Amino acid sequence: MIAQSTSAPAVQPAFDGLRAAFLLDGGLTLDQRRGALKALRRSLIDHADAYVAAIDADFRGRSRHETLLTEVVVVLSAIDDTLPRLKRWAAAKKIRLGFPFWPAAGEIRPQPRGVAGIVAPSNYPLQLTLMPLIGALSAGCRTLIKPSELTPRTADLIASHLGKTFDPSVVAVVTGDAEVARAVTELPLDLLLFTGSSRVGAVVAQAAARQMTPVILELGGKSPVVIDRSADLDMAAQSIMAGKLINAGQTCVAPDYVLVPRESKDALIAALRRAAASLYPQPENGDYSAIGSDRALSRQHDLENNQRVIPLFDAAVAAPRHTPKVIDAPSPDSAVMQEEIFGPLLPVIAYDDIEEATATIRGLPSALVIYWFGEVNDRLDALISRTQSGAVSINETVLYAGISALPFGGIGPSGWGRYHGKAGFDSFSHERVLFRQPRWNIAKMMRPPFGTHADGILKLLLRNK
Predict the structure, then answer these.
(1) What is the mean pLDDT of the chain?
(2) pTM: predicted TM-score of the whole model, two decimal places
(3) What is the mean predicted confidence (pLDDT) over 389-415?
(4) In this structure, which of 144, 387, 439, 454 has its CB flanked by the most CB atoms within 10 Å?
(5) 3-class SS of residue 448
(6) Are residues 343 and 377 in the same domain?
(7) Whether the Cβ atoms of residue 305 and residue 316 lie closer than 8 Å to each other
(8) Shared-domain flag, residues 44 and 187
(9) pLDDT grade, residue 4 (50/70/90)?
(10) How many domains does the chain have?
(11) Are 127 and 180 in a shared domain?
(12) How far apart are CA 278 and CA 292, in angstroms?
């Protein structure tokens, strides 16, 4: 089922309305931003149960608790973190200028970029629509939203509820198929935030470049877990399984594979099985979520084909759920090691020293986050200095991504740009520079015809300190 409420030709009028409002009235005032965020909060609370039901239907089985925690509570927390800080974020910043520019004054004023676009994915269809919207509203932008067509019930609810909450000159929502999303990416937006796969992200970046539209790309990657010899295996296994199996692995920051000291591999796999059983003692009771589509489910089967698999549940679960499995020592060239898994499969690979673990990470697709279990030590420092990722999380998986005070984003193929909290405000803002020169100033002495004053100033500037 695909949401078909909007056709691609209808995208342009929605954008034109936002652009006309920005040209006439500018961005949202500080009071309007506060009001918009509070209205968004009220709407989300009022309709939380409806969103739970819609997401459950779209996923063909999504844990109610997971949806409330990851789609509703995370967004409410971000709004609550933003509201008391917004005045400070939006304030102009005086810049102290030294010689030879004194007594001139500098100032940086954050201003709304203009009309922003948000193209959201299906794995967290509510959170990954509203979290960027918080950044856009806090910065004062007018915003065009395209929810995922793969979660049509949720998309229609978002369109309905935001349509009742905001005037279309402030927030407009268009729904429909991939052609509608493509039409959004081809608009002359002032900023576009896209969340999705690296493959589609490259296409989006090309479309945006033709309009000179700056983009934030929130993509995926292969996020490794590195188990240090100092790690508590049971504690690590609990966190790994919790992060891997939430939303059945359909999370961009889910642990993608595990690197473990060779002598500890069997013990870790046993600990992973215990952890999975303790987290999901009755997987069919609804706590363990389904895979979002038949195509995605089939892909998980393809990834595990011809691999040595170790089921993590004692009994297999029925489709559309997929039984989580360890994949023992897969080939680096296999699809399961060359693609983001985005499901409940977990390769486990042995290593002998931190140099080997580092080389493995560097030889695989880019990581959105690197997880480390163990003490903070020289081996961790070496790993951080020799690898790249959007984040490093120590002794915990996934949780950091829901903390609005921490900037969220990738690097290279795992993403461009950041949002959440202040980072989101900054990304959706343009830092406009003001420079004020008083009547009397030193700069006059540096203009032709040059004389003794210019020579004296140059002597001061060129002196050794």
Answers:
(1) 96
(2) 0.94
(3) 97
(4) 144
(5) coil
(6) yes
(7) no
(8) yes
(9) very low
(10) 2
(11) yes
(12) 24
Tens-place pLDDT, residues 26-40: 999 999 999 999 999
Place of tokens 């609810």: 157
Q: Is 360 domain-assigned? A: yes
Yes or no: say if 329 and 269 are a contact pair by the CB < 8 Å rule: no
- Rounded Cα–Cα distance for residues 249 and 259 (Å): 18
Backbone angles phi, psi at 40, to 5 degrees: -65, -40
Domain range spanning residue 235?
A: 224-409
Q: Where do runs of H (alpha helix) occur along 29-140?
A: 30-46, 48-59, 64-67, 74-82, 86-90, 127-139
Residue 274 contacts residue 236 (beta carbons within 8 Å):
no
Active site residues: 218, 252
Neighbours of 459 (CB within 10 A): 9
68 is a domain residue: yes
- Position 192 in a domain: yes
| The pLDDT of residue 283 is above 90 | no
Contact 297, 328 (CB under 8 A): no
> 130: domain CATH number?
3.40.605.10
- Distance separating alpha carbons of residues 132 and 120, to the nearest angstrom: 9
Distance CA 374, CA 268 (A): 13
How far, in Å, are 112, 185, 186 from residue 205 at the CA level? 22, 8, 10
